[in-house]
Design a protein that fits this description.
Elements lengths: L7 H23 L4 H30 L7 H19 L1
Helix pairs in contact: 1-2, 2-3
Length: about 90
């Protein structure tokens, strides 16, 4: 995913925030926090992962599907990769 190098620091920061959110859920469960609080934390993680996915999909689309100069074969491969990732994510 060479196109992510330019955005690497931001992607890593985002991923680390998500890891922190997941760790907070683990602590909340271990500490027997209220169900509503844990549900809100899980919803926050889901939103954060969705935002990360949106950013990665957009980068992949720009770099491997619509970028000028790509061959038809490269565009097709980029599109197939993107479709496979979206289908897997949607399950």
């Amino acid at each position: 995913m060479s196109h992510a190098h330019a955005n690497k620091d931001q992607l890593l920061a985002r991923t680390r925030r998500i890891a922190g959110q997941v760790a907070a859920i683990e602590r909340a469960i271990a500490d027997e926090a209220g169900c509503a609080a844990i549900l809100h934390q899980v919803a926050g993680v889901r939103g954060a992962v969705a935002g990360l996915m949106d950013e990665l999909v957009a980068e992949h689309l720009q770099s491997h599907v619509v970028a000028p100069g790509l061959s038809d074969a490269a565009r097709a491969q980029g599109g197939d990769e993107l479709l496979a990732a979206i289908r897997r994510y949607a399950k």
